[in-house]
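Render this sequence as a predicted structure.
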Amino acid sequence: MIRDELRERLKVAAEQSGCAAVLGMLLEQAKECAYLFNVEDEEAGMRVGGNRIGGRPDLPEGMEWPRELNERGKAWRYANFIAQLNLAEVPELLGMPLPRQGMLWLFARGATGDAYGVEIAAVYNAKPGELARRDKPDGDSDDGPAADYATAIRFERGVSLRHIDVTFRQIDDLRGDFGKLAHEGYIASA
């Protein structure tokens, strides 16, 4: 389910791209999502407590850095930081019950080069208090690939369509161009 303003945007996009014949199917599949965009004002975007991917996290005092677990389930080396999200800055999304305040940090546990061996550690704090930029704890020399590179991000409400099981022949018969919708930024594929 999506709100009326997004329903209208999807309708216009479908008509402009020649997909009006499948608008009903698109609307049935549509879900609200939050698009991520680079922040153009990098300095403002890298503020403490800001949204970013990579770099070093802003953590509250006393928060333990997540660790990886070895094959015996014992704490091993420190996980690699992925991203931090200030949930007050994520737009409210129908059907996605995210908290409206607090911080969410994501860390990768496992070999970062092996997508099948990576677990994500998500740490949420509703009232984190004062935050400070932190390096990975001492004793672990591997800061991961994103430690020196950060991208400040912002959010914008959008539409996501889950995989639609339509054969190539049906798509050709409908003469729709789903790729054009995605390319023009009207939808995201989930």
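Summary. Residues 4-189 form one domain. The two ends are 15 Å apart (CA to CA).
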